[in-house]
Amino acid sequence: MTIALSAATLPDIAARASVPVYDRSTLSAGILHFGVGNFHRAHQAVYLDSLFTRGRDHDWAILGAGVMPSDQRMRDALEGQDWLTTVVEQSGARSLARVTGAMIGMLPVGDGDAIVARLADPAIRIVSLTVTEGGYYIDASGKFDTDHPAIRADIAAPFRPTTVFGLIVAGLARRRAAGTVPFTVMSCDNIPHNGVVTRNAVLGIAKGIDADLATWIEGAVAFPNGMVDRITPATGMQEREALDRDFGIADNWPVFCEDFTQWVLEDRFSAGRPALEAVGVQFVPDVTPFETMKIRILNGGHAVIAYPAGLLGITYAHEAMETPLIRAFLQKVERDEIIPTVPPVPGTDLTSYFGIIERRFANPKIKDTIRRLCLDGSNRQPKFIVPSIADRLKSGAGIEGLALESALWCRYCFGTTDDGQPIEPNDPDWDRLNRVAAQARSEPAVWLDQEDIYGEIGRAQPFRDAFSTALRALWTDGTRAVLARYAGGSN
Question: Of the candidates 329, 336, 468, which has an alpha carbon nearest to the alpha carbon of residue 411?
């Protein structure tokens, strides 16, 4: 018999999955979180659930907030089950389900007055975000785009903000006026120096509104950088059916994820923090080495396998890893070009770390889709691939494999697989990418003229030459043949 998830059914679900053993009525919100998606619920919310299970810090529960249509769908799903989430952690050998209870509510989506009122509440001491890589209004150089229409609108009407960052500025302005200690702003998104990027966004709006407010934010508000890691695919009917079949639980929006999780965080907070070190969070003075390692080796590695797999019609990441040509491509690019660009990381052997990444990519339980890994390349490539190319060029080292990865992305954006099947639009800027990819078929280097993606390295002649050679070969010989030549004849 299937049991629908709710607070009332937790005693029955306890025989099928772990459930909160703490009294949720004792929880109070200390964190307001923007972007209550799958990753947040599989990562930050799980750490807090574990902390609450230890009887610690029950005044640091999560209150959700959002401004996007997807936030409304999530709110509707979670409200119907008392803000509980079933998280299924999967290794290659087994799956374990747990119900997390760290979230205790969610504000009306897009209700600026309600959101700013809670941001002004002294009980809220951390504002965290998972708004995706593309949600920070930044270009390839990392600069905050103050000319974006949504940002201009928030600066022009500071008492009616509609963006996450405009809301944060409004909340901080109200706290400053009331003499309340400011909250910490903590990005949990997969962006290099995510704290710095978030700080630039908040200050970019604040400076346009009130120079004194911006100066106060600069001096009083903490924006810690953090490295977050857990592979968390999107939820579909397959996951809902698996939860029912394997555990007999009906959840409106469950989360399936790998059993690996990591969070490295700089210990800089404006108004205190929960004792997350008790449940595995690693606090460090500088997160840079860890985030560089993860973004280049893991996220860059995802890009390396994604586009050849997409062109070959492969559906899942583990199937790509079962394809010898793609696995050999990943191993060679990582070993020869990506890992050498990563500075030493305290307490970490980079070769061993890559071995863990390979095993994670190959986990058949996760069913992480190639389409998800190919998504939003216009935002991801400048963060995950371009910096490695820049470092290789700077040192005079070879970039054959990374140039091939870029060419595979361009070929993917043409919109057909190697066997002619259509690739549906898979990027916010797909129309432009598709148009430029078509032109690049005969003029390869035009792809690198997209300044917002490649910046200065797009003008580097060694990269232009290697990219052009790779793209022409993909069109002439196809993905399999090109990968086989690169990998030294592996098949």
Answer: 468
CB burial string 71-109: b at 16+ within 10 A, e below = beebbebbeebbbbbbbbbbeeeeeebbbbbbbbbbbeb
Query: What's the rounded Cα separation, in Å, for the pair 223 and 226?
Result: 9
Residue type at 131?
A: V
pTM (2 d.p.): 0.89
Q: What are the residues whose beta carbons fall under 8 Å from the beta carbon of 179, sequence distance 6 or more?
A: none
Number of neighbouring beta carbons within 10 Å of residue 143: 12
The pLDDT value recorded for residue 286 is 95
pLDDT of residue 490: 44
Determine the pLDDT at residue 141.
Answer: 64
| Per-chain mean pLDDT for the chain | 96
Partners of 86 in the beta sheet?
Answer: 99
List of domains in the chain: 3-284 (3.40.50.720), 288-486 (1.10.1040.10)
CA pair distance 75, 107, nearest whole angstrom: 8
Q: pLDDT tens-digit profile of 267-281?
A: 999 999 999 999 999
Are the beta carbons of 266 and 195 closer than 8 angstroms? Answer: yes
What is the distance between the alpha carbons of residues 355 and 350, in angstroms, rounded to a whole number?
9
Residue 176 contacts residue 218 (beta carbons within 8 Å): no
d(CA 485, CA 463): 19
What pLDDT, in 10s, does the model give residues 381-405? 999 999 999 999 999 999 999 999 9
CA distance 258 to 363: 8
pLDDT tens sequence across 429-469: 999 999 999 999 999 999 999 999 999 999 999 999 999 99
Give Cα 65 to chain centroid, integer Å. 18
For the chain, residues with pLDDT lower than 50 are 490-491
